[in-house]
Amino acid sequence: MKTQGEIEAAIANGINRFEQEYMGRGPKDIRAHLLGDLLVVRLKGVLTAAEQHLVKQLPAEKGRDLLKQVRTHLIETARPAMEAMVQDITGVKILTLHHDISTVTGEEVILFTLQTEPPLRETRK
Question: What distance lies between CA 109 and its chain's CA centroid?
């Protein structure tokens, strides 16, 4: 059994590896937060130079929508691998995955809904 901090660190490391392999670069900062049966992963600084350029050059809605479509498609394509990684770390089945990205701040959020709260080991005080 793992502590909450060990689960959060392992998830952050796993998502960081995913970003590097699938997107070509990792985020500048990543944090995972386990809140009962919700797992929130917040990534900062994820936009590549090409994505930033695309968003600036196209009309606001078109650039934003295009980037979100591409990122969502990539997440959906890799969804089985991401869910397997989270399930392996938490020991709990994944019910849903939600994703969004801000083209303004370069922040990305991935939310996993777990079937139950993962079993946790108490931290030593």
Answer: 6
Q: Of the candidates 39, 33, 32, 46, which has an alpha carbon nearest to the alpha carbon of residue 101? A: 46
- From its phi and psi, is residue 36 left (phi > 0), alpha (psi between -120 and 50) or beta? left
Pairing, β 29-35 against β 94-101: unpaired
Contact 87/93 with Cβ under 8 angstroms? yes
Domains of the chain with bracketed CATH: 4-114 (3.30.980)
Summarised one tens digit per residue, pLDDT across range 60-101 is: 788 888 889 988 998 999 999 999 999 999 999 999 999 999
pTM attached to this predicted model? 0.90
Beta-carbon neighbour count of residue 15 at 10 Å?
A: 23
Task: Compute and round to an integer the Cα radius of gyration of the chain.
Answer: 15
In sequence order, what are the residues at sequence separation of 6 or more whose Cβ sits closer than 8 angstroms to the Cβ of residue 73? none
Are residues 67 and 55 in contact, defined by beta-carbon separation less than 8 angstroms?
yes
